[in-house]
Amino acid sequence: MKFDLSNHPHFVRRVDGVTGAVSFLLNERVAPFQRGLYYATPSISADGRWLWFRAVWPPSRGGHLAAVCLDPAQPRLVALPVTIGGGQPLLLPEGDAAYVAIGDGIYRVTLDGRAEPVLRMPAEIIANRRLAHLAGDLTLSADGRYLLLESQIGNRWLISLGELATGRVLPLRSFFRCYHHAVFSPTDPELLLLCQGPWHDDISGEKGNIDIRIWLMDTRQTRFEPLFGDLWFNHNCMSCHEWWTADGKVQWVDYDDGIHEADAYESPRRRSLIWPHRDLCHGQCDRSLRYIVADENPYGRCADRPCRILLLDRRSGRETALCSDAGLPPIADPADWRSYHLDPHPHFSPDGQAVVYTTCQRGMVDVAVAPVEQEATDAE
Fold first, then answer.
1. 10 Å Cβ neighbour count for 78?
2. Cα–Cα distance, 200 to 155 (Å, whole number)
3. Are 319 and 308 in contact (CB under 8 A)?
4. Which of 375, 367, 348 has its CA nearest to residue 41?
5. Alpha helices, DSSP H, located in the chain
6. pTM > 0.85: yes or no
7. What's the CA gap between 228 and 236, in Å, rounded?
């Protein structure tokens, strides 16, 4: 990591009692719940200077953006007056600003509290329907021209492009079923990954289920296809959570057997099981392609089956628990855990030297930073 958090006044050092691995928990609070961002986009800025996180005040399920400077010499902690829903912000390269979906618009939010409009979903597209959300995981095309918008409007899901230079919104494809977690390829400006998800009809409450989870689509609308057409969710696979690698491959978790990888451009495509491990859930590969991090059993965690944060070194094959027990969320009814989205969602800093995750190991909801390269430490 760029900064040594052991000397940071806002962080507390925590040594895992089983493995001896060290994590640094943000100890200074701006809200009762403080959690990292979703795994699809980084929580730490590209310059390594700022850690952005979500601040939540129960019983509210939403939250505000907040950030802390990781430089111990300038330990600034900022709570922004920006309410965000389920969507994830996208940190800008300069580190002190982020693109954020607020209502029907995308805004450039800075750490001094300014919110500058970037684009808005046109009223004629919304057409007097309920805009449930404008964007899920905000990502930028590889050529820097477009933001990818995955919106739920009324009873449809819409994939569209937001052109940064003009503010225009360019609709691509509309669906009568849930397609979400749409993210741009990091190498191909025209290719995107999107996923079928379960949903409930807003009127009837009837549930729709996943058929085939992982799909590829292009911005020219000449391509819309499953990554693998023979993987049927809850029949012959449990594929659910996926991400791009830095070199443009797709990796995904199957709850039953581990993490797989495939080349989107290979024909015919082949899939490889690269981390055999049951009950992994959310994951990510670092930019060097050497490490993969994942959480284990976040949905079924209990006193007898803890949720762990695991790191795989693909070079050596060594598996390490950065956290042997992420704890139980401090919420009375387990049915409410998912509504707060308190899964660890581990993901790498842009430089690959740290993992950010959400933990409840202290009986509260904390955002944690763990160095990837760990020195030998005695367990407490």
1. 17
2. 10
3. no
4. 348
5. 123-126, 337-340
6. yes
7. 12
CB distance 184 to 143 below 8 Å: no
Q: What mean pLDDT is reported for the chain?
A: 94
d(CA 121, CA 27): 38
Own/partner long-range contacts of 71-78 (Cβ < 8 Å, ≥24 apart): 71/3, 72/3, 72/4, 72/5, 72/7, 72/8, 72/9, 75/8, 75/9, 75/10, 77/10, 77/28, 77/30, 78/111
Express each pLDDT in 341-364 by its tens digit.
899 999 999 999 999 999 999 999
Q: How many residues does the chain have?
A: 380
Integer-rounded Cα Rg, in Å, for the chain is: 20
CA angle 121, 124, 125 (to 5 degrees): 55
Non-local CB neighbours of 88 within 8 Å, separated by 6+ positions: 37, 38, 40, 41, 136, 137, 138
Cβ neighbours for 262, distance < 8 A, ≥ 6 positions apart: 227, 228, 249, 250, 269, 270, 271, 272
CB atoms within 10 A of CB 307: 26
